Amino acid sequence: MVSTTSIDLPGILLLAPCEEFFLSTTKDLPIEKAPVPSVDPNTKKKVERALSQVEMKNKEAAYQAWLGYYNSNKKVGKNKYRLVELANDFSRSMGLDNPPPIPKLVLGKMGLRNIFGLRSK
After folding, report:
1. Cα–Cα distances in Å, from 56 out to 18, 89, 93?
2. Fewest C-beta atoms under 10 Å: which of 4, 49, 62, 81?
3. Is 113 left (phi over 0), alpha (psi -120 to 50) or beta?
4. Using alpha carbons only, what angle is made at residue 19 by residues 14 and 24, rounded to the nearest 5 degrees?
């Protein structure tokens, strides 16, 4: 016989402002908006150090995946120039000064060829 116990544990969902539309898909969850907490400078340095250890190929893959996912999302991907602006913010959050280049073929398939702010290879 298997026994299961239900435990209510609080969680934290971090969303960028452009992702707040996700809340409309979680209507069954008791989500409360909370103020953005302050970040301890030591914690920020630890995160930056950890990000510097992530291999570039993984950052490139994350950037391309972010761009591909949100490009297909009608809420964020409708305005391609805003999409690229947000993608490049994401790139900077990984500690990159410049967004990684994306293969021209991939940009073409995404419908993002010749959009200002993207780099191709």
Report:
1. 25, 17, 14
2. 4
3. beta
4. 100
Name the CA dihedral angle for 8, 38, 100, 106, rounded to a multiple of 10 degrees.
40
Q: What is the pLDDT along the chain (121 residues), one digit of tens a residue?
A: 555 566 677 788 888 888 988 888 888 888 888 888 888 999 999 999 999 999 999 999 999 999 999 999 988 999 999 999 999 999 999 999 999 999 999 999 999 999 999 999 9
The label of the residue with tokens 């990000």 reads 51
Query: Tokens representing 48?
Result: 């930056």
CA angle 56–53–85, rounded 5-degree value? 50
Instruction: Please give the structure tokens belonging to residue 90.
Output: 């994401």
